[in-house]
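Human: My hope is that you can spare some time for a protein that puzzles me. I am handing you a single protein, as its sequence and its fold in token form. Could you go through the record with me and say what the backbone is doing? Take your time, and here it is.
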Amino acid sequence: MPAAGDQPPRAVPHTLTIPSRFCGPLDSANGGYLGGLLAGYLDGPVTVTLRRPPPLVTPMTVEGGAEGSVRIHHAGTVIAEAAPAQDRPALRVPDTVSMAEARAVEGRSRYFQRPEFPTCFVCGTRRGRGDGLRIFPGLVHGRPLWAAPWAPDASLADGGPSVRPEIAWAALDCPSGIAAIEAHDISEDAAILLGQMTVNVAALPAVGHEYQVVAWSIRREGRRLIAGSALLRQGDVLAVARTVWVTMRRPVPRTTVGVEEPS
């Protein structure tokens, strides 16, 4: 299984367009997917900060920045920024689950009783096999851990046996949000938005194998919910994410996403 760091970072292109397949909400891209695309322009663990909802099927301008950073913008507005991680998450998890345990709790979270984003590329219940990732984490009985099985299909690879890095990032996104919502009992009159994601990838999942996706809450800091997630295979930790979610009252303004750009 190839290590994620075996390939050099990609050159920064002038534009990047995200196909509609990779949506989170119906009209914007999954944040983890965008984060993985931006991380591909850097080397090693990366922190991606989201500023605005990433548009779909829309060319966005990508620019290199100071100290190895990359930013993407559209119509004069910064959408997201990526930079080398200053505090990478360690390749370990607070607890693990067997594949049988992950299968047993699949979909057994309160979120899936009334999913807010049923067409999401990662956790959308309306996405078919070979289209969405269909990762449906549920709470493991007696433990503060959410888990689900995941078997990536051939459409997620890029000419080799492993999934593309942005697919691994996407798989780590939604499970951490579901864990954050349920661990802190966020009410239905509030929403959470992904503001920042830091990922440390040791190896990329391979097509045709089955993995466990696990997620957990780390802490709450006012409106900010910090959570973790990981991809596991036979007890090995392939990738770990630390995410920052921001709570907001509904309705959420369309121009808002998790972290405001500093002035």
